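Intended use. Records like the one below are meant for learning the mapping from a protein sequence to its folded structure. Do not use them to infer anything beyond what is encoded.
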Amino acid sequence: MPAHPETVGVILAGGLSRRMGGGDKPMRTVGGRAILARAIACIEPQCDQLVLNANGDPARFAAFGLPVIADTVEGFAGPLAGVLAALEWTAANRPAVEWVLSAAGDCPFLPTDLAARLHAVRIEQGAQIAVASSGEQMHPVIALWNVNLRGDMREALVVENMRRVSQWMQRYRLATAEWSDQPVDPFFNANTPEDVARAEIMARRLGE
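Structure written out for the chain above:
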């Protein structure tokens, strides 16, 4: 089991994939495996439990054998709604767990030390949220969240109509952990068919 505090992981796979031309972009393949399968293989060992956040028919993810939770805010409100769904699911189903690790389902090269390093930096800085960064660029959906923030997050989404994850997290004690973007950026995300082609080149660079 991980050495850090109990953590529920959520892979955010609930986007509309407009730039990919529709469908589930995490199901596109890189290096012979679905991007989502790659993300699961990386994140699952780092957490005590892993869930998927996705909307629509959950049966399309049945092969992965993970709980699939839909947004609890209507209207495809973006990744912040996916994080909220995971925080609320954790509070209801794993009440002893205080932390949720979120990762994007369209990232083929996620780091194996993601949870450990985010926990370390948030403990060091006494933060309520810890976020990943690479190449001096913050990646707001790759983050560690305190479950107790769920009430404030729901109010921001429902009452304030807030959608930007980076805007919301700046309200709280925020710690940042930096990763190198060489030889590939671990947080590269495949939003378009061109990105998938680039990811194939990156996979070959890594010797896959």
